[in-house]
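Review form for a predicted model. The reviewer records the input and the model, then writes brief findings.
Reviewer: anonymous (R2)
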Amino acid sequence: MNFTRIIIPIIIIIFLMVFFTLVPVGLWITSFFSGVKVRMTDLVAMRFRRISPNLIVNALIKSTKAGLHIDIDDLESHYLSGGDVNQVVDALIAAERANIDLTFEQAAAMNLAGRNVFEAVQVSVTPKVIKTPTIAAVAMDGIEIKAIAKVTVRANIDRLVGGAGEETIIARVGEGIVTTVGSSKTHTEVLENPDNISKTVLAKGLDSGTAYEILSIDIADVDVGRNVGAKLQMEQSEADKNIAQARAEERRAQAIATEQENKAKVVEAQKLIPEAIAEALKKGNIGVYDYYNMKNIESDTDMRNALSKLDD
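Model under review:
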C-alpha cells in the first residue's frame, strides 16, 4: 500500500509535466482572451511539426488585432518554407494602414525571394533617397566633370519580385550622366545648367525592369576635374617626339654605318696604290723622278697635318 501511494503521485506528476510540455495551455489561454480561435490540437500538432507555437500565435494575435484575417495554415506553411512570419505580418499591417493593396501571398513571395517586404512597404509610403558615388565624365572640350546625384525612388510592390535593385538604378543613372556630359560641347554648359543632366537622365526611363519607381534625379554636386583633352594631347606629343627621336637615331646609325663602310673602301683602295705604282714603274708609265716628287708631296702633306694638330 505504501508503494502504491508513492507511485501514483509520481505518475501524476510525470503526466502533468508531459502534458504541459506538449500542450501550451498558457498560450492557448492568451489566444482565447485575445479573440483568436486556436484549437488545442493545433498547438500540439505544431510541436510535432517543429513549429514554434509562440511565434505563430503571437503573429496571429497581432494580425487579428490589426483587423487582418490570416489563416493559421498560411503562417505555418510560410514558417516551414523558411520565411520570416513576423516580417510578413508587419508588412501586411503597414500596407493596410497605408491603403496599399498587398495580399499575404504577395508578401510571402517577396519575403522568400530575399526582399525585406516590410522595408519595401515603408519605401512605398515614404520615398527613399539613393546617393550615387562620384561619377566622372568628359565633355567634348576635353574637360572632366565630376557629379554626384541623389535619386528619389519609391518601391513598386508589383515588381518587387524579380525586379532589379538599387545597384541597377545607380549604374543606369551613372551611364546617363556620362552620356549627357559627353554630348555637351563644353564643360561650361554642364556647370551652367546641371538640371539638364537630371532632365535627360530622367527621360530615359531608367526604372524599367527595376523594383523601384524613380520620382526625381537631383544633381547634388558638380566639380571640374582634370583637363583630359590636354593630357591626351601631351601624351600624343610625347609619343610623337619619341617616334621622331627613334627615327633620327635610326638615320644617325645608318649614316655612321655608311661612313664606316666608305672608310673601309678607302683603306682597301689605298692598299692597291703601291702595287699600281710598281706596275706603272715597271711599264714605264712614270719615271723615278715622278715617283720621288709624289713622295715629297706626301711627306709635305703629312708635315702640314702634324703642325696643324699642334696648333689646335
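Findings: The mean pLDDT is 78.
Further findings: Residues 163 and 209 are 6 Å apart (CA to CA).
Recommendation: see findings above.
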